[in-house]
Every structure is written in C-alpha cells, then in structure tokens.
Amino acid sequence: FMTAAQGMGLGCLFSMLFLIKKNFYFFVVFLFLYFLVQLYRRQFPDPLLIIKKLGLILVTSLCIFSSYYAFHAAVNGWHQSEAVSRMQENTADENFKPSVDPHRTYFGANLRGKGVPLSHVWKNMAWGHITFMSCFGVYGNMHFYGSSEYYDTVQFLLILALMSVLFDMVCSRAHDGSALLFALVVICATALVGASLLNSWIADFQAQGRYLLPIVPMIGLFLYSARHILHKGRMNFFVLVFFLFSSYSFIFLGLREIPKL
User: pTM for the whole thing?
Assistant: First the structure.
C-alpha cells in the first residue's frame, strides 16, 4: 500500500497544513473524521496496517512542525502574541492600535467591542453575500466584481449540483456510509463558515471567500468516495460548467479589469 519513504513524504506534505492559515485546521479535523468514517465503511482491507502507516505520517508531521515551532520560538521568543501586540502598539496607525477605544478604530475592526451585533454583520454588512461572490470571482483589492447575473447563475448551478448529489444518494439507497460522509462535509464546512464569520465580528471584517478554501478538498474527497453512487454524466457536466464559468470570470473580468502596469 505505501512504503516508509512514501509515508514520510506524505507526512511532510501533511505538516504543511499546520504551517499555512489556521482555516486549514478545519480540514485537518475533517481528514481525521474522514479516516474514522472510512474505517466504519470498511474501506481498508487491513485496518491495523493502515493505522501503522497513519502513525508514520503523523510522527513525521509532528517532527517537522515541532522543529519549525522551536526555531520560530528561538528567534522570536515563546510569548509571540505579546510581542505582536507590542509591535502593533508601537508601529501601527492610530486606527489599529490595541490600546485605542474600539469606537475610534478602523470601522471593520473589533465590531463586537463596538457593540455591533453578529446579525448586523451578516445581514446589514452583507458578510454572507460578499463572501459568496468572493468565492467565485472578485478581483483586485475586492474592487472588481462580476455582474449580478453571473453570481446568480453560479448560485443556481450550485443548487442544481447539490440536488443532483442528494437525488443520487436517495435513489441508490446505499448503506455504505456515503450519507455519513456527506453529513461530515456539511458539518465541517458549516463550522468553517461560522469561524470565518466570527473572526470578522471579533477581529477584523474580512468577507473573503479565500478563507473557505478548505471546503473544496472536503467536497473533493466526498465526491471521490461516493463516486460509485453518483451519476457520472451529470458530475462531469457540472465540473465542465464550473470550469467554464471560472475561466470566463478570470479572463473577462479579472484580466480585463485589473489595471495594467
């Protein structure tokens, strides 16, 4: 199934998930739960061997992450959050200093401290709508948007794709854990969306779809695992259509609108 060298290589790649943005921690949790579901579905002929290989991957990842953290702490100290706060206080603009009254800071910073309710962030500040558009094509410094028709069409296609998946799951009447995998994707994706919304409320208002990127590999793993019950023709159709829409957005909006040097 996998040699020791391949396991260590996968461990190196897996450790990268801990060294990039914290939103990928949700994907790490998803991978762990995905592994448990696959064990439940009896997808591994030799579970004990798989657990040993997984242990090799985790040990390799832990060694790399621990080395990085140790070197980072040796250079910057163990109390990094305090050092960052001091640097922010000494060098940041007045609107971004931690000691300044929240009501006098940048409009999007510490909205909770300013007394802004979470519902206001979602509804009045259109966090959900802006984040959705950003997921499917907003360029520049969040300055260049597509037409409302483009985003409405993408939303409609997403609903159709979801209905297609649910239809296949119901018609297949499969009892192999595919529904459990689907529920796992929904739960982890919802948790990530909630964490991103909470961060915009507590820290800084950033309605950006890039923070939801880990949802893409979650969906990919589900589609691969449930490929035996999904209609191949419809899935290929949706993949092609979304590729064409993304190409259109990048070429005719991104490349055209972004200022040239």
Answer: 0.87
> Which residues does the chain have with pLDDT short of 50?
none
H/E stretch holding 75: helix 47-76
Residues linked to residue 139 through DSSP beta bridges, in sequence order: 144
Structure confidence by residue, pLDDT tens digits, 159-204: 999 999 999 988 887 667 788 899 999 999 999 999 999 999 998 8
Provide the mean pLDDT of the chain. Answer: 88
pLDDT of residue 1: 61
| Residue labelled with tokens 């450790």 | 15
Angstrom distances, CA of residue 43 to CA of 50, 143, 177, 178: 11, 47, 10, 12
Residues 59 and 12 sit within 8 Å (Cβ to Cβ): no
Closest CA to 227 of 169, 188, 148: 169
**Amino acid, single-letter form, for residue 32:** F
Residue 18 token pair: 């801990």
Q: How many other C-beta atoms can be found within 10 angstroms of the C-beta atom of residue 211?
A: 22
| CA quadruple 61, 66, 67, 69: dihedral, nearest 10 | 130
CA distances from 191 to 155, 172, 188, 214, 238 (A): 20, 28, 5, 11, 25
